[in-house]
Two-component system NtrC family response regulator (Thiolapillus brandeum), 459 residues
Amino acid sequence: MALKANILVIEDDRVLNRMIVRQLEYMGHQGHGVEDLASAHVWLHKNEPDLIISDMRLPDGDCIDELQGLGESHPVIVLTAYGTVKNAVEAIRAGAADYLTKPVSPEELSLTVERVLDTEALRNDHQFCKSRLAAQTGSHSYMIGQSDALNQVKELIDAVADTDLTVLVLGESGAGKELVARAIHDQSQRRQRNFVAVDCCTLQESLFESELFGHEKGAFTGADRKKKGLIEGAAGGTLFLDEIGEIPPPIQAKLLRVLETGKFRRVGGTRDLNSDVRIVAATNRNLKKMSESGEFRADLYYRLEAFSIYAPPLRERREDIPWLVEHFIRNHNFSMRVKKTVTKEAMRKLIAYDWPGNVRELKNVVERAIILSRRNKMIRSQHLTFGACQQETGLQLDLPGGASPTLEELEASYLKMLLKKHAGHRATVAQIMGISERHVYRLIKKHALGEAAAPVKRA
Ligand SMILES: Nc1ncnc2c1ncn2[C@@H]1O[C@H](COP(=O)(O)OP(=O)(O)OP(=O)(O)O)[C@@H](O)[C@H]1O
C-alpha cells in the first residue's frame, strides 16, 4: 500500500463527499472534502495534494475544463454518473488518471485510489532516477575542463545537438568520445528516451546483425521468438556506435540504408521497418584511410563524416588536468572520508605527463593515488604511478610451458603482458600486435584474460 496520502475530494453531493473522505481516512490517508471548484482553488493555494478526486460536473464549472491545469501537477480521478462512459473517456483524454462511476463502492474506490497512487509513485521514482542519471552523466556541463580545445567541442555539441544529424566523434582512446555522444543526446529533444551505447568491438560478428536489427522468429537456429534489436531499443533516442570502424562490411551496407532511408529489416524479416534513432558513431581509427583502402565503405564514411567532432587528446589541453584531477578526487568514494588535495609537485608531474590513455588513464592514476595515499590528506608524487606498469621492471612473458611453450601459450602470455603494460587499452595493444581491436577482443575472450583488459562498455 502507498504511504499516507493527502487527497482532495471535490463533490457537491454532500453525502457522497463525506462517504469518500471517511473511506479514504479508513484506508489510512488524509481526506479533505470541498463542494465546488472555487473552494478547491482556495484549498489548493495552500495545500499540496497527492491526488484529487473530483466530480465531473460541479455547480461552478466543469472538471474537464480544469483537468489540464490540475492534472499536470496532481493525478485526478474523475467521478462520473452511471451510464456516462462517453464522459469518462473524455475525462481520460483530457488528462484524468482514472475514473469511478457513481454510485461509488468503497472497494472500487480503494482499488482505484491505491492503483493511481502507486502509478504516480513509480512515475516520480522514474523521473527522479532519470534526473539523477542526467546529473551524473549529464549534459556537457559535466564535461570537465575549460581549455579552448574543449570549449570548441562544447560549442559543436551545442550546435548539432538539436538537429538530429548523424555525428561522427573522432579521437584517441579515453579522450572522452562517449561523453561527447552523451552530451549530444542530453541536449537533444531525444533526452527523455534511451541512450543506447554499443561497443562494436565486443559484438560477436555472427550475432552483430541480429543484435543491431533484431530478428524474426525462426530466422536462424535458436531464434525461437521474435527479438527487437538495439535500433528498436533506442527508438526515439540515440544509438551510440562506439568503434564503428569494427563493423563488418555486410552490416556497413545495412547501416548505410538506415542512414539514407531510415529503413531496416529484422534478420529473417520481409517487411521494411522505420527506424527512429539518431546515430552518433565514434572511432579512434583513421576511417578515411580505411575507406581509401576498402576496409570501410566510402559511402558510409562520407555519410558519417558530414558532421564530425574531434575530442582532442589530453596532452593538447593540459590546462584541463587540474580541473579533472579535482573532479575525480571529489567523486571518489574513498575520498569522502578524507578531503584530499594534490601537492604542487605532484600536480606539476600530472600536468607534464603525456597521457597516452588520455582522461581514462588520468582517472585511473588519480584513483590509484587516492588509495595509495591512504589516510593522508595530501596526494604526493610517490603516490602517482604513471604508464600503468611500464615502470615495473621484470615484465616478462609468464610461460607455463617453461622453455618450450606452444604457440597458443606464447600468444596468451604475450597478450597478457601487453594488456598489463598498457593498462588494458585494447587499441594500444592492437596497434603493437598489428591486428584489429576486434581481433584483440577475440583473443582476450579465447584466453579468458577479461580481467587484464580495460572494462568493456555496456551495450
Ligand atoms: N571532460 C571530461 N570530464 C570528465 N570526465 C571525462 C572527461 N573526458 C573523459 N572523461 C572520463 O574518462 C573516461 C573515458 O571517457 P570515454 O569513455 O568517453 O572515452 P572514449 O574516447 O569513448 O574511450 P574509448 O575510445 O576507449 O571508448 C570516462 O570515465 C569519462 O567519464
Notes: The chain is about 45% helix and 15% strand.
